[in-house]
């Protein structure tokens, strides 16, 4: 009898301990949940009117598009600089969103500068917002709630507004968006048509100084221009006869037999579909770092060891691109209109393969001369 009693008592003790442990752990999890809610609470407006593009990237619901590589790199560059808010300027909203999705996908994959790592790109669903909030006051209330949530994230949330000019500028609905940008509390990616950007943002000095327009050209016209530029280059550049690698690149290859040194090389837009180049881009050995002018001339950073394989893959010409400082030097305009300045971007770069300290005749980034 004693043994059975002892066993019964022992069983009760284990049961009591199990109940107590369960109580403790359940309370710990409850506290953690409350803490999580405290630091991740968002307004109804954010939940209702935004889509997390970065999360879509993590879930594999966004597809990489190498044809938008140059625009994506420029967008990431402006975001990484943290000086101005980038605005994707194109007439097609689908193109605007596709470029921002590429940036979100890069954040999801961790292939962005350190200061952009782990950030979240939230798209403001403007169509839903303007169809549900029917009065200016209701729109302002929703936008202000979104801005408050984004500001509370302390720079971790990037708000993508595809109709920026409806929320920023003298004719826009009054809200806290621009004030938060001006105070440096909010990071935004905007999108706009050329005309709206020019009239409502770029022409207003006090507003324009906070934004950096990224002009996305029509691809059909750009391809035709690129073909014309390539044809003109072939006729003009006698030094390339019999060799599609420029003399200065050949010299670099001789000086570095290992081929490990990385250089910036200029390619034409039509070369972006080259199989060998796409393979290098997909593997991460090469990356498009810039796009120049309306000809969509691409600047690709790659190791010298990759030049021979590209040379034999059918590319027309491989040229040294010079220093990034020269490429990024802003162009000073006098009294030409901004639209004329963009038209001037059809001009081809000069001294491209023979000089290492060349300048571009125009700078297609809506930047104001200082």
Helix content class: 40-55%
Roughly how many Å apart are the termini?
97 Å
Q: Name the quaternary structure.
A: single chain
Number of strands: 10
What can you see in these coordinates?
The protein is an alpha/beta fold. The protein is built from 16 helices and ten strands. Strands 1-3-4-5-2-6 form a six-stranded mixed sheet, sandwiched between helices. α8 links the parallel β4 and β5. α4 packs across α5. It is flat and about 80 Å long. The termini are far apart. The N terminus and C terminus are likely disordered.
Keywords:
disordered N terminus, 47% helix, 370 residues, single chain, 4-stranded antiparallel sheet, flat, 16 helices
Tell me briefly what this model is:
With 370 residues, the protein is α/β, with parallel strands linked by helices. The protein is built from 16 helices and ten strands.
SSE inventory with pairings:
Blueprint lengths: L1 H39 L3 H6 E3 H6 L10 H13 L3 E5 L3 H17 L10 E5 L1 H7 L3 H17 L4 E5 L15 H6 L4 E6 L1 H9 L2 H4 L2 E5 L3 H18 L10 H9 L6 E6 L7 H9 L3 E6 L4 E7 L3 H5 L7 E2 L3 H4 L10 H6 L27
Parallel strand pairs: 2-5, 2-6, 3-4, 4-5
Antiparallel strand pairs: 1-3, 7-9, 7-10, 8-9
């Amino acid at each position: 009898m004693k043994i059975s009693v002892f066993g019964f008592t022992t069983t009760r003790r284990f049961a009591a301990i199990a109940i107590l442990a369960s109580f403790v752990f359940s309370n710990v999890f409850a506290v953690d949940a409350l803490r999580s809610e405290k630091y991740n609470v968002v307004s109804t407006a954010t939940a209702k009117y935004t889509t997390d593009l970065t999360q879509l990237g993590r879930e594999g619901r966004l597809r990489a598009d190498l044809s938008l590589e140059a625009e994506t790199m420029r967008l990431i560059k402006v975001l990484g600089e943290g000086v101005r808010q980038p605005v994707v300027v194109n007439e097609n909203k689908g193109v605007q969103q596709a470029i921002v999705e590429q940036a979100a996908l890069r954040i999801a994959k961790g292939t962005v500068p350190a200061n952009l790592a782990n950030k979240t790109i939230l798209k403001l669903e403007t169509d839903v917002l303007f169809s549900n909030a029917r009065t200016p006051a209701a729109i302002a209330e929703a936008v202000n709630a979104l801005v408050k949530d984004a500001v509370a994230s302390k720079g971790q949330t990037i708000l993508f507004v595809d109709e920026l000019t409806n929320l920023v500028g003298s004719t826009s609905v009054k809200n806290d968006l621009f004030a938060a940008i001006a105070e440096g509390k909010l990071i935004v990616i905007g999108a706009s048509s050329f005309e709206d950007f020019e009239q409502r943002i770029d022409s207003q000095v006090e507003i324009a100084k906070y934004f950096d327009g990224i002009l996305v050209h029509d691809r059909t016209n750009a391809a035709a221009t690129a073909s014309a530029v390539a044809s003109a280059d072939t006729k003009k550049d006698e030094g390339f006869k019999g060799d599609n690698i420029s003399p200065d690149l050949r010299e670099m290859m001789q000086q570095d037999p290992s081929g490990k040194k990385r250089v910036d090389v200029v390619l034409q837009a039509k070369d972006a579909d080259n199989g060998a180049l796409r393979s290098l881009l997909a593997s991460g050995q090469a990356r498009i770092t810039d796009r120049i002018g309306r000809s969509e001339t691409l600047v690709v950073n790659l190791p010298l060891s990759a030049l021979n394989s590209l040379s034999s893959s059918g590319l027309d010409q491989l040229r040294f691109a010079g220093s990034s400082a020269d490429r990024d030097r802003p162009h000073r305009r006098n009294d030409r209109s901004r639209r004329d300045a963009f038209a001037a971007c059809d001009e081809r770069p000069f001294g491209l393969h023979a000089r290492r300290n060349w300048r571009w005749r125009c700078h297609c980034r809506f930047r104001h001369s200082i």
